Amino acid sequence: MVRNLKGGSGAKGQARKHTSTGSSALIKTRLAVEEGELYAQVTKNMGNGMCHVLCQDDKTRLCFIRGKFRGRSKRDNMISNGKWVLIGLRDYESEKKDKLDNCDLLEVYLDQDKDKLRSRATHINWTKFLENDSANSFTPAEDGVRFTDEREDDYNTLMDSISKAPANSLKLSSASAIKSTSLVVEKEEADVDVDIDDI
């Protein structure tokens, strides 16, 4: 048995031979090379090892998640909406009018693999997948509703009136008038006596 070097929650499951020992840079990205392999994007998780995928040929298919991607190996192959996958078509099955075509999951791509796919497989139109990626990412939409209270409304109206009002300028006749007023204030403050008993 492999020695447990990790520790923490779920450490016993991670210290097994099923975890990848190499770095992610050494793992090669699998491309669609055979005839029945297509790139797809997960649109809906059905549960029970199935999901709906939107394929590169704009058809929605029912994808069966194989045992390789379930259970203990699910950690690095988590399938969620918007995830890019490689599927294998079932050519041996006949098509039914009322049901979706069946396919099998062959590979789950990580987010860093998406750039590699777009650069290597240039014959594929990736715009549909990229649009769905932006739709699945959480971006709060501006719906035009803003919540305020009375104090904030009063403040906003006051600030608007101040910004729209013409600027008033104060003209002083000379600098000596400013000095004389400041001297008067200092003399008045000095005349005030403080009684310690009053404190």
Molecular structure report:
The chain is built from five helices and five strands; from the N terminus they run H-E-E-E-E-E-H-H-H-H. The chain has helices at residues 11-14, 111-120, 127-136, 150-164, 175-191; strands spanning 37-47, 50-55, 60-64, 84-89, 102-108. The protein has a five-stranded mixed barrel with strand order 1-2-3-5-4. 10% of the residues are buried.
Question: For this structure, what is the CATH class of the domain at 31-136?
Answer: Mainly Beta
Shape category: elongated
How many beta-strand runs?
5
Beta content comes to 15-25%
Q: How are strands sequenced across the largest beta sheet?
A: 1-2-3-5-4
> Structural class, judged by helices and strands?
alpha+beta
Architecture of the domain at 31-136, CATH level 2?
Beta Barrel
Distance between the termini: 82 Å
Q: What would the CATH topology of the domain at 31-136 be?
A: OB fold (Dihydrolipoamide Acetyltransferase, E2P)
Quick check: average pLDDT?
78
The gyration radius over C-alpha positions equals: 35 Å
Largest sheet: 5 strands, mixed, barrel
Helix content: 25-40%
List the helices and strands and how they pair.
Blueprint: H1 11-14, E1 37-47, E2 50-55, E3 60-64, E4 84-89, E5 102-108, H2 111-120, H3 127-136, H4 150-164, H5 175-191
Parallel strand pairs: 3-5
Antiparallel strand pairs: 1-2, 1-4, 2-3, 4-5
